[in-house]
Amino acid sequence: MDITTIITQIIGELIISAPALWLAGRWRVGAERAKFTDALWITAVGVVVSVATNEFVGAGIGSIIQLVVYLYLVQKYYETDWVNAAVIAVVTVVILFVATIVLAMVGIAILGPGLAGLV
């Protein structure tokens, strides 16, 4: 994978995932601990770790490593425990899923083949 693809992936994730992570963090740990810049850093570092693990380890073990690193980042940046980090991660996924469905219903987003039957 070349550096242009990685940078593009980081920028895309920052635009899409960081706001959802920030909202989930504010809901769970409060505005004092869940800063938007923290969400940006969590997302950026998470993408770099994701690319590195997929490149060097593979998808199977890499997915587990990515999950642990992502939860660790949420736990450290938002100054919370592992359970709250897991709740924030799940809520982030739900926010992204709902946003995708809403955007698809108004014709802005294009759903992937896995979600095509849901709308």
The tally of domains stands at 1
Average pLDDT, rounded to a whole number, is 85
Characterize the biggest β-sheet. Answer: none
Overall geometry comes to globular
What portion of the residues fall into strands of 2 or more residues?
under 5%
Structural class: mainly alpha
Helix content: over 70%
Number of discrete helical segments: 4
- Count of distinct strands: 0
The SSE string, one letter per element, is: HHHH
The parts where pLDDT drops under 50 for at least 5 residues are none
CA distance, first residue to last residue: 33 Å
Descriptive account of the structure:
By secondary structure, the protein is mainly alpha-helical. It has one domain (3-118). It contains four helices and no strands. It has helices at 3-29, 36-56, 59-77, 82-105. Helix 1 crosses helix 2 (36-56), helix 1 (3-29) packs across helix 4 (82-105) and helix 2 (36-56) runs antiparallel to helix 3. It is globular, with a radius of gyration of 15 Å. The protein starts with a helix and ends in a 14-residue tail after the last helix. The model has no long low-confidence stretch (mean pLDDT 85).
